[in-house]
Amino acid sequence: QVQLVESGGGLVQPGGSLKLACFASGFSFDSSTMAWYRQRPGKEREFVAGISTGGSITDYAGSVAGRFTISRDNSQNVLYLQMNGLKVEDTAVYYCNARSFDYWGQGTQVTVSS
Fold first, then answer.
1. Helix, strand, coil percent content, the chain, rounded in steps of 5
2. How far apart are alpha carbons 97 and 36 in whole angstroms?
3. Are 6 and 109 in contact (CB under 8 A)?
4. N or C: less crowded end of the chain, CB within 10 Å?
5. How far apart are CA 75 and CA 44, in angstroms?
6. pLDDT tens per residue across span 59-113
7. DSSP string spanning 34-58?
């Protein structure tokens, strides 16, 4: 069955870094554009970053551009999100999304707090 399993979330201080990973199985990972979304407390789910099937094309929400980097390893079926310069407003549940098939992971909590 299709699975998207996120990991790497946690508590970090402002200015810190975290790297999220999403382990995919049950579908053709290298055939799907992929993305990260997040849902901040009291807000709707929002797009964070996206990446093409081969990884050469990426796009970012304006609020994270220059701080976050999305990447993928098609040989291991893993999607990553490197988050640097974290801010309190980055606190959210982060979700992995297989855009081409509309599959979603269960989410991982990221909390930025001093």
1. 5, 50, 45
2. 6
3. no
4. N
5. 33
6. 999 999 999 999 999 999 999 999 999 999 999 999 999 999 999 999 999 999 9
7. EEEEEE-TTS--EEEEEE-SSSS-E
